[in-house]
Amino acid sequence: MTGQHASDNEEVVLDHGTGARLSRELVERIAATLGDTYIGAMEDSAVLDVPTGRIAVTTDSFVVTPLFFGNGDIGKVAVCGTVNDLAVSGARPLYLTLGLIIETGFPMSSLIRVLESARDAAREAGVKIVAGDTKVVGKGEADRLFINTTGVGVVERPPLVSRAVRPGNKIVLSGHIGNHSIHLLSVREGLGFEKRVQSDCAPLNGLIEAVLRGVPEGAVTAMRDVTRGGLCAVLHEFARAAGAELSFTRAALPVLPEAVMAADMLGINLIHLANEGCLCLFVEADKVGDVLGILRAHPYGRNAAVIGEVKSAPAPVVSVIEPDGTQTQLEELYGAELPRLC
Question: How far apart are CA 157 and CA 212, in angstroms?
């Protein structure tokens, strides 16, 4: 461990947020734990070199229940989610900020564990954490730990935007859908599926870069990471942007049988569930084979599949072809299908 050892009975206290000595010591411990991924100089702002005339900026806040799960935690989710939002726009992620809102009584050992996960995810993604903030609030004023991030990336190619999607594009998924939500639900509710259905949380910028470098410019017209709202939300977003019909075949969806079993038991639909390591790509038909080959050669894309296509239509619509051959419209959810996980 890079940071200082945290004893099991050590907790965050309100004085860690006063700006005095305990605050300084907490920030120093955070910086030590983040290690070589943190390049802040403890100034009020970071001064950064950006080797391009265009940048991409994203911001997000992370609330995860449970904070820790089988193969990740809120720290990993925060870094991966921010990196992926930059990468799907075609940007190369470079820098992140890390803001922590910590409830009094949160174990210091748990905070260090979260920071280590954030550090490891940042290392894998090749990004630096350049600035951050800590706020300590009283008991009951936060649910243990909230994280806010801002990400900055450089735009070295034409950006990928949803309005570029057009009829004839094939719809490709990079991997299984629903695993992240099923895993968290299983951990939270004690369902017993968590060992067989792991969260897909991962930084996808390496996979995305491999795809964009491996095919001609324009072969991938747009992409999105399939997070909150699931595949259904992504397809409706792109149908509206393109003014087209997005049609997919249910039997073509890449799904883990155990995830299907868990979803059926819970009475929920995998297409509405959040993921943290799945891409939806819109690809020119004559390049879809090349894109699939690149995706499947990467550890995070080995279950990639073509699920449907974009069609001309008088109004935006998402349709699904069922196993019996019937085609129905897929309605957008009004709210959440299940209690919020992240």
Answer: 9
Residue 68 has pLDDT above 90, yes or no: yes
Cα(130)–Cα(45) distance, integer angstroms:
9
Q: Contact, 217 vs 276, CB < 8 A?
A: no
Same domain, 185 and 234: yes
**CATH code of the domain covering residue 284:** 3.90.650.10
CA 202 centroid distance within chain: 7
Give, to the nearest 10 degrees, the angle between helix 205-214 and helix 288-296. 140
Residue type, 201: C
- Residue 339 covered by a domain: no
Show the domain range for 289: 162-329
Closest residue by Cα to residue 278 from 260, 257, 258, 302: 302
CATH code, domain carrying 74: 3.30.1330.10
Give the closest residue to 248 by CA, choosing from 178, 319, 317: 319
Assess whether pLDDT exceeds 90 at residue 44.
Answer: no
Q: Does the pLDDT value for residue 2 go beyond 60?
A: no
Is residue 178 located within the same domain as residue 121?
A: no
Which of 41-55, 224-238, 272-286 comes out lowest in average pLDDT? Answer: 41-55
pTM for the model stands at: 0.93
